[in-house]
Amino acid sequence: MIPPINLIDAFDRVTDYWSPKVIGEVNDQLLKVAKLKGALVWHAHDGEDELFHIVKGKLRMEFEDHAVDLKEGDILTIPKGVMHNPVAEEECWVLLVEPASTKHTGDEITDRTRSLEEQMS
Amino acid sequence: MIPPINLIDAFDRVTDYWSPKVIGEVNDQLLKVAKLKGALVWHAHDGEDELFHIVKGKLRMEFEDHAVDLKEGDILTIPKGVMHNPVAEEECWVLLVEPASTKHTGDEITDRTRSLEEQMS
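The joint structure predicted for all components is written out below.
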């Protein structure tokens, strides 16, 4: 069995923005922590929902026709296929739940795209 | 799209111990909040992992050959098929991630067993 991990301690491993780190799994879903600052990129995940849980700070989730402002403790699931762009004016810590197959920038390849191997390191 | 839910506010809906409430979903996994106090019952979930995230308080997870003490912020996945018994000496708040099909007392039916319909209410 994988030993317990402390969520706050897990963020010590995160040194770069927009570079998720895998910290656990449940039924083929991965738990990842990430520090965000600035905007990522407009993208969608065609076959997979993506859950954002704001651990610290604030995040504005832009959608094509509206935006949702998220604060600490807020949980939002982006349904599969929905275009979105996360924007953090200040540093924001998030816990993500998504399948192992999810690419965090969708099919957009940018200099922020990280392979699953990089996310496991 | 389901609007965001605040994790701490979600616990306001929980009035009984050992009575999980569904607060969200991602890729056929349900997010549930529960308040725990005392011991539940020895059980396993044959086909499904179950993730515990300690939001407030402490939880002792008993296994057949050892126990793990969890504190606030700790995350532990119970692998499918592993017998376990959560014990909270004092009130403990947990966030759970498990498939819609998971029965929270496994195949043990007790007066604490809650149907999915009850968990959605």
